[in-house]
Amino acid sequence: MPIDTRQIQAIVFDAYGTLLDVSSIDAYLINTFGEDKATEIAKHWRQKQLEYTWLRSLMHQYVDFYTLTEHALLYALKATDTAAETSIIRDTMSQYYHLKVYDDVSPTLARLSEKYKLAILSNANPSLLEKATAYNNIDPYLSEILSADILGQYKPAPSVYQLAEKAFQLESKEILFISSNTWDIAGASAYGLQTCWLKNRQNGLLEELGQQVNLEINTLNELTLVLG
Amino acid sequence: MPIDTRQIQAIVFDAYGTLLDVSSIDAYLINTFGEDKATEIAKHWRQKQLEYTWLRSLMHQYVDFYTLTEHALLYALKATDTAAETSIIRDTMSQYYHLKVYDDVSPTLARLSEKYKLAILSNANPSLLEKATAYNNIDPYLSEILSADILGQYKPAPSVYQLAEKAFQLESKEILFISSNTWDIAGASAYGLQTCWLKNRQNGLLEELGQQVNLEINTLNELTLVLG
Questions:
Q1: Nearest-Cα residue of chain B relative to residue A205
Q2: How far is the C-alpha of A212 from the C-alpha of B101, rounded, in Å?
Q3: Amino acid B200: pLDDT
Q4: Tell me: the pLDDT tens digits for B130-171?
Q5: Any B CB within 8 A of A62 CB
Q6: How far apart are alpha carbons A9 and A118 in whole angstroms?
Q7: Measured over all CA atoms, what is the biggest interatomic distance in chain A, rounded to whole angstroms?
Q8: Packing angle between helix B65-79 and helix B86-94, nearest 10 degrees?
């Protein structure tokens, strides 16, 4: 079903991989662990970070996103036979506070914020999101910074997407959810939000999870063409 | 904490990758899709099968394991640019009914069944599990074949591990759960079962999920040494 732009009153963005470029950390990883290991560490780290959000939600063993991300880093170091002192682990983790937004983020948010309410909806701790948005000067464009942390459950649990509905007091179809993560699109679609898949951030394929994708875009700029 | 053998009254096994060798399908994949593609298809297939059990459980969008496995296969074919007719997809899926058990399974189950109640606890449909255990002649050793299907939720949801407790009317610590899958060990441990990690099936590392592993073994035969 194509996007129904007339209904849309708020636009909600996933954070990591959609607005914030996790690969901002790569240069630090290369400097710290060497080029060969950095790629492998980054791959394991991101994969386990995702898996641990899903597994801990299912196990009812919530820990906050920053802690969980550190656990994923410990796994990645173990999987790559990398010894690292506590201070290095702490420094590596702190890079999460300084992730850069992709180039198309600030202009698009500035433009869209003139017409729509905008929000971030993310698994990350509120403090992480607040620091990352302030660091990138995009906080003035955002009406809401919504974190799964308040629920003790991660995406794609329906309750997380419901946070957007509640925050804006809107119906699900009045909200457009934007993510580069295909499993996140599936979750938002299952909950009933309108969905927009941002394709150019990573080489992805849509999941076989029965999702409705209402709009596919290659860059965030395309959003302003569709939504004016 | 080391295993407390005096308490154990029942032994519960994960199925795929622990008793049943999923790589039994590899020869069929090579014959059907060629050697180069077979490895890539198998890798994506298994990864998405796992991910979809977690994601669908979290999304409250349950479909049974056979259907979900077919969805994962469709993803794997798409990800590897492999065209396949419906009849090929059906044939590939039907291989799941003819998975072989690992060599150490039958002798170990025969031996342990003299002293303990044994069960399978799996995500798979009951019909899949019944056919696979009958095909390998291990059904006489099993008191129970427990499937997550009855719950409409997959491991590592606590309710799935609880099925074992309920079936045997035992306390959690009276049950030893055995799996080669490290996330499955984490789930069983979080629920409170005693856990045994079977290490030789795949190159794995324990997850950073705070699990208790009460016993680590390299082959199933070692179980008979510990549990007599």
A1: B79
A2: 39
A3: 83
A4: 999 999 999 999 999 999 999 999 999 999 999 999 999 999
A5: no
A6: 9
A7: 55
A8: 130
Question: The domain at B10-19+102-227 falls in which architecture?
Answer: 3-Layer(aba) Sandwich (3.40)
Q: Which of A4, A14, A26, A139 is catalytic?
A: A14
Nearest to A208 among B57, B71, B155 (CB): B71
Q: Which of B198, B53, B58 is nearest to B124 (CA)?
A: B53
What homologous superfamily does CATH list for B22-98? Putative phosphatase; domain 2 (1.10.150.240)
| Closest alpha carbon to A217 in A193, A196, A189, A187 | A196
Chain B hits for A74, Cβ within 8 Å: 208
**Do B59 and A156 meet the contact criterion of CB atoms below 8 Å apart?**
yes
In chain A, the DSSP E strands lie at 10-13, 20-21, 100-101, 117-122, 144-147, 175-179, 194-198, 215-217
**In this complex, which of B60, B205, B209 lies closest to A55 when CB atoms are compared?**
B209
Residue at token pair 């509120």: A126
Quick one: pLDDT at residue B228? 75
Please give the pLDDT value at position A200. Answer: 83
Pull the structure tokens for residue B165.
């407790």
Residues in chain B within 8 Å Cβ distance of A158: 59-60
Cα gap B32→B217, rounded to integer Å? 35
Q: Could you tell me the residue ranges of all domains in chain B? A: 10-19+102-227, 22-98
Q: Do B61 and A205 touch (CB under 8 A)?
A: no
